[in-house]
Amino acid sequence: MHAVCKTLFLALLVSLVLFAIAFGTPVLSMFTSAKVLQWVGCTSAGFDNPAIRCGYGGGGVVGERFGPLSYWFTTLLAPYFLVRHFWDVMLGWLALILLFGGLATVSGKGKPALKRPAWPDTRPET
């Protein structure tokens, strides 16, 4: 149980950091959010197309969240838009990190630590 919780804790922590870097960095967020919109079938906004259009089959919620990050004129405000549109997702993500971190700590307390001597005992037996 300890190894599973520790692995989930580390995976969630690393993925949250990577998510924040990918969508909270000013210039990088414009490209990554445009790629996410492309994956779900939405067309990005541009000079000739002032709005993000999502085809049939959904993508509306994704377009609402990632849309403001994909505009070139809001790229410097990426950290603000990341917190504004993803605060609930990031709060849930943080709660899972704290949950699995706490479970890893609690489940690891009952195990005795293996103690190895600092140097091997090379004295001859008498």
Sum this structure up briefly.
With 126 residues, the chain is mainly alpha-helical. It has four helices and two strands. Strands 1-2 form a two-stranded antiparallel sheet.
Strand order of the largest sheet: 1-2
The residue ranges in which pLDDT falls below 50 over 5 or more consecutive positions are: none
Integer-rounded radius of gyration: 23 Å
Instruction: Summarize the biggest pleated sheet.
Output: 2 strands, antiparallel
Strand content: under 5%
Oligomeric status: single chain
What's the overall average pLDDT, rounded?
A: 81
As a percent range, the share of helical residues equals 55-70%
Q: Per the principal axes of the C-alpha atoms, what is the gross shape?
A: elongated
Q: Which structural class should the secondary elements be placed in?
A: mainly alpha
The number of E-state strands comes to 2
The SSE string, one letter per element, is HHEEHH
Taking the alpha carbons of the first and last residues, their distance comes to 44 Å
Please work out how many helical segments DSSP would assign.
4
